[in-house]
UniProtKB/TrEMBL annotation:
TM helices/strands, residue ranges: none
InterPro entries: Isoprenoid_synthase_dom_sf, Squ/phyt_synthse
GO molecular function: transferase activity, transferring alkyl or aryl (other than methyl) groups
Pfam families: SQS_PSY (PF00494)
Gene3D superfamilies per record: Farnesyl Diphosphate Synthase (1.10.600.10)
SUPFAM superfamilies for the chain: Terpenoid synthases
Protein name, UniProt field: Phytoene synthase
Length: 297
């Protein structure tokens, strides 16, 4: 997919090569690591894309800490660095970190709520350990601090300020996106000992964390995944209701919601949810986002 002809940074930033290179780095990182949000952001106005990419690159950085460290303690140190940066204690240390530099620029430009970013980091501490997700309520809370927060912050950037009226849409939408994403990534998480399937639902179906990390497609795990798909569909329906009449200028923040129905259908067809990462194919994802964007226009 080629970039739109107006893709780039606004003149004020283009005049500062270092700033332009920081945002370019974020763009490349999101393109490589978070393809869905990368494609969705391309439908945003040119002068907003760089800031969306800075936000999404920050999310990539904190979400992949588990992948780049072997033990929890170094991961905690990395997350603490990000906390201190956002709290304003690390400004002098960002010269060699393009994502940090770009994020600080975006925070300042839009007065992004730092509390939401700090809560996102705090939620990611869970990723560093092999403790199972205790309950469905905990899982929805995790989704709220991560995927829902990204929706809210994206809408903030696109709207030029906070959009409290979208809190309900962001809350439900983020849970739908997160549940679908976690079910798609089940083989990856289970292989490294993580269990995002909530224990209370597993127990209700006679299953356990041990079965998840053993990667056994038992009837209990399949029933648990069916329950999660139902929950994701319910949250998606509530999000769509809350988004009725949405300002088209804010629509790119919510485009990835369009992927959830197809992902849920594809996941339902999997006989072995541990065999491969599920969901729509890459080409189908791109086409679905394009079609959803066309509808909003």
């Amino acid at each position: 997919m080629s970039l739109p002809p107006d893709f780039g940074v606004p003149p004020a930033l283009a005049a500062t090569p270092a700033a332009a290179s920081d945002y370019a780095y974020c763009t490349d990182l999101v393109r490589a690591q978070d393809r869905d949000r990368f494609l969705a952001a391309l439908f945003a106005p040119a002068d907003k894309r760089q800031d969306l990419f800075a936000l999404y690159a920050f999310n990539v950085e904190v979400a992949r800490v588990r992948e780049v460290v072997r033990e929890a303690l170094p991961g905690e140190v990395r997350l603490q660095w990000w906390r201190e940066l956002i709290e304003g204690h690390g400004r002098g240390e960002v010269g060699g970190h393009p994502v940090a530099s770009a994020l600080l620029g975006t925070i300042g430009r839009y007065s992004l709520p730092r509390g939401a970013l700090l809560n996102l980091i705090e939620a990611r501490v869970f990723d560093l350990y092999d403790d199972p997700m205790p309950s469905m309520n905990d899982l929805e809370g995790y989704a709220g601090e991560t995927a829902s927060a990204l929706l809210q912050l994206s809408a903030h950037i696109l709207g030029g300020g906070p959009r409290p009226a979208l809190a309900n849409a962001c809350g439900h939408g983020g849970v739908a996106i997160a549940l679908a994403g976690l079910m798609r990534a089940l083989p990856v998480h289970a292989a490294r000992g993580q269990c995002f399937l909530p224990l209370d639902v597993l127990k209700r179906h006679g299953s356990s964390r041990d079965e998840v990390v053993a990667r056994k497609p038992t009837p209990g795990i399949l029933a648990t995944l069916a329950d999660l798909r139902t929950q994701a569909a319910r949250h998606l329906m509530e999000a769509e209701k809350a988004l009725a009449g949405l300002d088209p200028a804010l629509a790119p923040a919510f485009l990835t919601l369009a992927l959830v129905p197809g992902d849920l259908k594809a996941l339902e067809r999997l006989k072995d949810p541990f065999a491969r990462v599920g969901g729509l194919s890459a080409l189908r994802r791109q086409w679905t986002l394009w079609r959803a964007s066309a509808r909003t226009r």
